[in-house]
Amino acid sequence: MRSSIRGAGAALAATALVVVVGGSWVGYQQLAGPSCSGEIQLAVAAAPEVAPAVEAAAAQWTTDGAAVGGTCIKVNVTASEPVEVAAAVASKHGASLAGVGQASGTAVTPDVWIPDSSTWLLRLKSGGATAFAPGNGASIARSPIVVAMPQPVASTKFGWPEKKLTWNDMLRAVRGDKPLRAGIVEPTQDAAGLSGLLSLTAAASGGGGDAQQATTAALRALATGRSALRQDLLARFPRSNDPTSIASALGAAALSEEDVIAYNNTKPPIPLAALYLEPSPMPLDYPYAVLPGIDQAKASAAKVLFELLTTQGFKNRLAVQSLRAPDGNWGEGFKAPQGAPSPAGGGTAVPPSGGTAAGGLDPVAIDRAVSGWSIATQSGRMLCVIDVSGSMKAPVPSANNASREQVTVAAASRGLNLFDDSWSIGLWTFSTELVGSRDWREIEPISPLSGNRGKLEQGLAGIRPSSGDTGLYDTMLAAYKTVQDGWEPGRVNSVVLFTDGKNEDKNGISQSALISRLKQLNDPERPVQVVIIGIGSEVSKAELQSITNVTGGGAFVTEDPSKIGDIFLKAIALRPNAPR
Fold it and tell me: Region Disordered: which residues (predicted)?
């Protein structure tokens, strides 16, 4: 979450105003208050660091007689943490965001949302908000992501500010024999943390050797120094000139350029250096998102407000807040940190005029980073259940004709490598009549990975399809009861089941009986999360969702089995949503 150490911006007059007349844009110097009537209330939620600039521009517009089509406009700007608004939007649109949790009871969705990063919009879309299509989305500001480091550490260990550094240099420092004390704000809840995570994991995965092992090691190194709140992370930087204090304090963290400037403006005993590493990380880009569902009058007012936020006057307002304009340039009074690229460097390519702020971002890479972080840095207890019915023999053309079974086992094996030894994991297979009249077979009971990792790897390697059908309902009930019977507090207790078909066990329980039994077993004091991954075109998502609607968790279906690796990571990264 964003820090609260920023000062409010001074009010600077906008150089131009625009209004909508008959659907066209017309430049206008001033609107007299008496010329409008009525009132349109436009609610704007903006990231705390940009909110003062937006509020000052809106206040100036109101003073000059803000109106659209003869109706007066009142703009209410609220400084809102992006993660809080994201939680509210996700709840409204039925999306799941790993690590975000539920919205607070007071959270509401605004008419216009200006988060600090387009990654929030992408995560909502890929998280299941299929109807979420915010208008505009163009950037109104920018702040490069830097590695913040106490200046004595930066100069003595890294040759700052003369030496140019890369993310590979930082990776070596974090994973060395005497590792640098690195920190990060929880990347699932903070866009700057996510940007730093993406850059560091990209360096790890591109370094040759076992890329997954290197990436997982980097994640765990960062996880030891993570903070839920930005101000908590900032408080861990050295507060004394004493060498012992510097050595024991936080040594590096991915933050925004604006964060570093704001921190140094408080005159700390040890200022922070801003290291602009290459390749440049994804910057904070402050998209202007008009949320779907607002009426035409508000949409017109939102367009006018956006135009105000693209003027030279607003660029100067941003400078007061230590923010750059969307193209990387800055307004009057901006004081760049030492070593800052000038003026437009320090970030990914800027989209062309009229383009969206999200240009160039890869939602798949973002999903992988968020899921991988959630899995590698948290502990849980899970029973993995894999379909071995005859249909799992079917070849997958997009996976070089490997069978569905082989693709599924490969995905589970890769996922296993992400779990650390604090996890407890078990493995079952299922079809029909695998063990006498029973549809499932226990390969390994649920136990700590510290003692059964090798056995799980061997068990996965030995999985082969049977000639049976799909005994889904009996297996699900038995798996749920097994996890619940051994339920452990303080951990996520879950069933993750892979299947490529509908229930085909004529001798087993019915769907209605399964749902009824799960409702009886459901215990809020001992919740069991169920994740079902459906593979292929024969799967009924409605059938799977009827189960997860009762248990919590989620159902994920793909007709292309080669994609289940990413789906698996995303699915097991889900956590029961506690209210924010």
Answer: 330-358
